[in-house]
Specification:
Layout lengths: L2 H13 L8 E9 L2 E8 L8 H15 L4 E2 L3 E8 L2 E8 L3 H4 L18 E3 L9 E3 H15 L2 H16 L7 E4 L11 E4 L22 E2 L3 H14 L7
Parallel strand pairs: 2-5
Antiparallel strand pairs: 1-2, 3-4, 4-5, 6-7, 8-9, 9-10
The protein binds zinc ion (2 copies).
Length: about 240
C-alpha cells in the first residue's frame, strides 16, 4: 500500500465521511512497517472529552468494522479499513498529572502526584480552581456559619437602606472630601458618583453625588472601610 493510496483513501474518507465516523481533530498518513496507514485523533473538544465519551464515540467504528476497540485506559484506538487502507482513530486521555495543579488554590498543600485528595470547581473546565479536600471542607463549614452570621442580616438591611438613599442596593464606594472641615485630605466616604459631569478623580461632593456621605476623619480608616464595603458588595445574593 503506497502513500498515494493512503492519501486517496483519506481524501475519500473526508470528502464523504460515513455517518458512523466521529468528529476527528486532525488526520495524518504515516508509514507503518512496509505499508502506509491513515490515522486520526478523535476531537476531544478542548480536552474535555472523558474516557467514557471517547468509547461511546469510537464504538460505532468498532461495530461497523468488526474490530474491537484496542488500547489501554490512556489510549483507545478504533480500527477500520477504507478502500483497503488501514485507518485508525485514536483517543489519548489527558494526563491527570498535567491537568492537576501543583498546589491547592487556597492553601500551600501540594496536589499533583502526591495522592492528596482534591476537588475541581467547575466541570469540564481545565482552568477551574482546584482545592484540596480539607480546604473544601473548611470552606463549606465556614459558609454554613456565615449564612447564620449577624453580618448577613446587617448586610441585608443596609442594602435596603442604600437602595433608598443612593438608588443602588450595592453602590461602589469611594473616599471623598465632605467639605464639612478645613482639611486638604479625604475626610469621608460615600457611593461613587456616576454623574456624567463628575470627573472620576474629583473627590469633592456636589449636588450630583449620591447619599449617604459619611464622615471618616482618618484617611487610612476610610480607605479600609471603602475596601471592606466594595469587597462585601461581591458577597451574598445578587441585587
Ligand atoms: Zn488547600
Ligand atoms: Zn457627583
Amino acid at each position: 500500500m503506497s502513500a498515494s493510496n493512503a492519501a486517496a483513501a483519506l481524501a475519500a474518507l473526508t470528502d464523504d465521511a460515513p455517518a458512523w465516523l466521529p468528529p476527528v481533530d486532525h488526520w495524518e498518513i504515516a508509514r507503518d512497517g512496509d505499508r502506509w496507514i491513515v490515522s486520526g485523533q478523535l476531537d476531544t473538544n478542548g480536552d474535555t472529552l472523558g474516557v467514557d465519551d471517547a468509547r461511546r464515540l469510537l464504538g460505532p467504528i468498532a461495530e461497523q468494522s468488526g474490530q474491537p476497540l484496542a488500547g489501554t485506559s490512556h489510549l483507545i484506538t478504533a480500527r477500520f479499513e477504507h478502500f483497503a487502507v488501514p485507518v485508525s482513530v485514536w483517543y489519548l486521555r489527558p494526563d491527570p498529572h498535567w491537568t492537576t495543579p501543583e498546589q491547592c488554590a487556597a492553601c500551600p498543600a501540594k496536589l499533583a502526584g502526591t495522592g492528596t485528595a482534591f476537588v475541581r470547581l467547575g466541570e469540564g473546565d481545565r482552568n477551574a480552581p482546584v482545592l484540596c479536600v480539607p480546604c473544601r471542607d473548611r470552606m463549606h463549614s465556614e459558609w454554613i456559619l456565615a449564612q447564620h452570621a449577624p453580618l448577613v442580616a446587617a448586610r441585608r438591611s443596609a442594602r435596603k437602606f442604600l437602595a433608598t438613599a443612593s438608588g443602588v442596593e450595592r453602590p461602589e464606594w469611594r473616599q471623598l472630601i465632605t467639605g464639612e472641615r478645613l482639611v486638604a485630605d479625604v475626610d469621608g466616604i460615600g457611593p461613587v458618583c456616576t454623574d456624567d459631569g463628575h470627573e472620576p478623580l474629583d473627590g469633592n461632593v456636589y449636588d450630583c453625588c449620591p447619599e449617604p456621605i459619611l464622615a471618616v476623619d482618618s484617611p487610612p480608616l476610610g480607605a479600609y472601610v471603602v475596601e471592606l464595603l466594595n469587597t462585601d458588595n461581591g458577597v451574598g445574593e445578587r441585587a
